[in-house]
Amino acid sequence: MNTKVIRLILAGVGLYALFVFMVIAFYPDKPENMDWKDREEYNRVQITKLKLGSTREEVLALLGSPDLTEAKRQGVNAIQVMFFRTQHVRADGLTTQDECTPLLFENDKLIAWGDGAYSSYQES
After folding, report:
1. Is 101 exposed, middle or buried (0-12, 13-18, 19+ CB in 10 A)?
2. Is beta strand 68-74 parallel, antiparallel or unpaired with respect to 77-85?
3. What is the DSSP letter of 93?
4. In angstroms, how far apart are the furthest CA atoms of the chain?
5. Angular region, 107: left φ>0, alpha ψ -120 to 50, beta rest
6. What's the alpha-carbon Rg for the chain, to the nearest Å?
7. Domains and CATH numbers, the chain
């Protein structure tokens, strides 16, 4: 009887380990499913991987939906700024621009990011 109990325990532990492996291996960790602390860290890491000229769709696939966004048309060019939360400033339950890194797109191509990107958007 003692060996039967040990076998059942080992089988349970083995099934649990298999379940954990399957979840880790096959369940995608999407930015939308993260809490705000994890999302900030994820956004900081992913923004460092960006390349100028990336398309808006590529950036959205990498970072998920922006926290804030602004857009305007300047002549024939469509200019859009997407804000992604990257640093905690105040515990007020709101995401504000000072807690985000702006990404500037012109005609759906990434042309700049950071505080200078938003400044150039405001000046144009």
Report:
1. buried
2. antiparallel
3. S
4. 82
5. left
6. 22
7. 30-123 (3.30.1450.10)
SS3 content of the chain, % helix, strand, coil (to 5): 50, 25, 30
Side chain identity at residue 14, one-letter code: G
User: Which residues fall within 8 angstroms of residue 79, CB to CB, at 6 or more apart?
Assistant: 71, 72, 73, 104, 105, 106, 121, 124
pLDDT value at 93 more than 90: no
CB 57 within 8 A of CB 50: no
Amino acid at 104: L
End-to-end CA, the chain = 80
CB 81 within 8 A of CB 104: yes
Nearest to 107 by CA among 82, 73, 84: 73
Helices (H), 1-124: 2-26, 36-47, 56-63, 115-123
By mean pLDDT, which of 2-6, 54-58, 72-76, 79-83 is the weakest?
Answer: 2-6
53 CB-near residues (< 8 Å, 6+ apart): 109, 110
pLDDT of 48 > 80? The answer is: yes
